[in-house]
């Protein structure tokens, strides 16, 4: 395949990780490996943050951080810590590390309380039926669609009252 015609890597990963796309056995294995690598990456980042804070609190030198203070001493502390741990800061992804460590909202597993979601769905369904603008199946489709969006943190904020 010509590299100029190739699908961009980020788009391939997005399509692969989309739970709505059917996958063969190899693609399912790739998805599991990507998820495992993301979990490992997140655990490493979390470990580095705790290690850095532990190192900061064990130093004799005091470091004050606030919007009223210069950033220079904080940067110096990061450099000192990185040097001590043999960590290169040459290609630090300061602006985009979150995008690389967190899957897009559409690919995240939903985190929600089932009872709360059931109450949300029931209230929204009742509201739509009272409005009388939809039939039963159309209303259910709308309610389920909104519930999925709410569970994945995408779309409009639920407005069920």
Please give a structural write-up.
The longest helix is centred in the first third of the chain and has 34 residues. This protein folds into 2 domains: 105 residues, no CATH class; 39 residues. The chain has 6 helices and no strands. Helix content is 60%, strand content 0%. The radius of gyration is 23 Å and the shape is extended. With 161 residues, the protein is mostly helical. Helix 5 runs antiparallel to helix 6.
Q: Shape from CA axes? A: extended
Taking pLDDT < 50 over at least 5 consecutive residues as the criterion, the unreliable ranges are none
Q: Which H/E pattern describes the elements? A: HHHHHH
Largest sheet: none
Helix content: 55-70%
* Beta-strand segment tally: 0
**What gap, in angstroms, lies between the N and C termini?**
54 Å
Kindly give the count of domains. 2
Tally of separate helices: 6
Radius of gyration: 23 Å
Give the mean pLDDT: 79
Structural class: mainly alpha
Percent of residues in beta strands?
Answer: under 5%
Feature tags:
mainly alpha, 2 domains
How do the helices and strands line up, and which of them pair or pack?
Elements: H1 9-17, H2 25-58, H3 72-85, H4 97-101, H5 114-131, H6 136-152
Helix pairs in contact: 5-6
